[in-house]
Design brief:
Low-confidence stretches: none
Strand order of the largest sheet: 5-9-4-1-2-3-10
Helix content: 25-40%
Shape: globular
CATH topology of the largest domain: Rossmann fold
Amino acid sequence: MEPNGILIFAQLDEKYNVTSVTEELLSKARKLKEKIWNQRIMTCVIGPRMNYEEIINNLSLYGCDEVVIVNDDRLKEYNKTYYSEIFVRIAKKYPPRIILIGATKEGKEIAAYTSTKLETGLTADCTDLDIGENNLLLSTRPTFGGKLTANILCKTFPQMATVQQNVFKAEKIYDGNINVIFEWENLDTIENKIEIINKSKNNFSFNDITKSEIIVAGGNGACKENGFALIYELAQKLNASIAGSRIAFEKGYITKSQQVGQTGKIVAPKVYIAIGISGADQHLTGIKNSGKIIAVNKDKNAPIFKYADVGIVGDLFTILPELINRFNIDKEEQNEQ
């Protein structure tokens, strides 16, 4: 069968809702479809036996033409072996021209397995997608630590790319018409090498920074005694999420899930407050879709100021206590009224 269309792995969250990165990929796929005619947009949904009506309707709203659903009670929870092999089988049964997968932990595992099994290339962590010469997928991604941007033309089929959340804007359409296919895959023919023995949640209660409206992030300048304590206090006043740069993660001040940048999370808050962050290219990649950027740095030549809507030059250990105190005064005045 001749490769045709764009195949997207439709990732579901713990409550079996379509994730935002899937909606973003569908929206981008519609724009790619406009440049390569007669290409269908197909999604692959993998999960347990359940009612998929809401999922189907959601995929339709974002422009999916066809959805293939593989359901089995053994697929209630993500299993790398089952999910990856099922996705490969669907890709072989309905050979696509392009495969797009969200660069989540699960998505990266499935993408790597798929590219190996299909013997094709894979461009990871893309920041843009387009159709280039000869109607080939043109993938854009940062390289050399984010200092350069590479445009990669994929010449093998299917052409594959992973994209992080918040890179593209999710846009609904209201005339969606979707074809639904239920496929049965014999899981007994898949050698399952993974067994879930126990599940436990970590003790961290941090918000998902990819969904946060306000983020206070610390960089190398805050990686000192009381630096992140001030950031935590300011974030509490603003009801904001806490994040940081790669250096802050490497020094143990934040968790990996709080790291922002090319090797961390792509965020799109209404307000991003960068404290002691110089603004390396790889970090700026992660905040380019922020509404407003406020930067505090004692180095007036820090690159972050070129991108900040508001820049404050000064020592964070002087500025943050003043900001926190200002919020305390405002709260007291509100209580008096």
